[in-house]
Design brief:
Blueprint (H helix, E strand, L loop, with lengths): L2 H4 L6 H9 L1 E3 L1 E8 L10 E3 L15 H4 L4 E6 L3 H4 L1 E8 H7 L4 H16 L8 E4 L12 E3 L6 H8 L30 H22 L14
Length: about 230
């Protein structure tokens, strides 16, 4: 964690402890393109169910051998006129992190064998794959948060609280504001949670500057939400 170098003065302890109690993991996407679809036209999602789930426990003894089993399904991208014949595979956890270390031709091979095994069709052949790599991106180090063990609703409130905190003896308000999916009380782990949190903090700034600088009869424009 880089809070000690990012913030001076340091974060209040209650906010820091809330950050430490949040979980943060990796959920990657594997886009798989085909020349033609092998799934039904009305298919939306393809789930993969293994008869033996021994390799799906949290602690995997041989990630190199079994990482592909953590790919639990595909979303069919639609409309076809826009995306072509593309599936979006989902993979999470340590296996997702290991997948990021592989060259795409090796991921393509493993995904091809996986699909052939589940469909029973030995000639299904993807054209190419494209993988996200959130864990090894130095600016993200993962994909998004989740409520960790011991985390509570109060921790989410602490994360969204601006600095200085209410009741602080410091005279300058709103020095630092916090947004992002981790600060949304309901939609953490989602893109729309991140968007809503950004709107929330923009509204906070508008409210602050409206009350402190604008004449009473002047109303500032609000963000329009469709």
């Amino acid at each position: 964690m880089h809070h000690s170098t990012l913030f001076s003065p340091p974060l209040p302890l209650h906010k820091l402890h809330s950050v430490q109690r949040m979980g943060f993991g990796t959920n990657n996407k594997i886009y798989v393109e085909f020349d033609s679809p092998w799934w039904d036209a009305d298919c939306e999602v393809i789930y993969l169910v293994w008869e033996d789930e021994q390799d799906l426990v949290d602690e995997v003894a041989d990630v190199k051998r079994s990482w592909i089993k953590k790919l639990f399904g595909f979303t069919v991208l639609k409309p076809t006129e826009r995306y072509g014949h593309v599936l979006c595979g989902w993979i999470a956890g340590h296996e997702s992190e290991y997948m990021e270390t592989l060259p795409e031709h090796e991921v393509l091979h493993e995904v091809t064998q996986l699909i052939r095994r589940f469909t029973g069709n030995p000639i299904v052949t993807p054209r190419r794959v494209l993988c996200s790599r959130w864990f090894h991106d130095p600016w993200t180090c993962g994909s998004y948060t989740y409520p960790g063990r011991g985390c509570s609703a109060q921790d989410l409130d602490n994360l969204m609280e601006p600095l200085p905190t209410k009741g602080s003896t410091q005279s300058q308000p709103l020095q630092v504001l916090f947004a992002g999916e981790a600060t949304h009380p309901c939609y953490y782990s989602t893109v729309h949670g991140a968007l809503l949190s950004g709107w929330r903090e923009a509204d906070r700034l508008i409210s602050h500057y409206s009350s402190s600088t604008a004449p009473p009869e002047t109303s500032l424009p609000r963000l329009k939400r469709n």
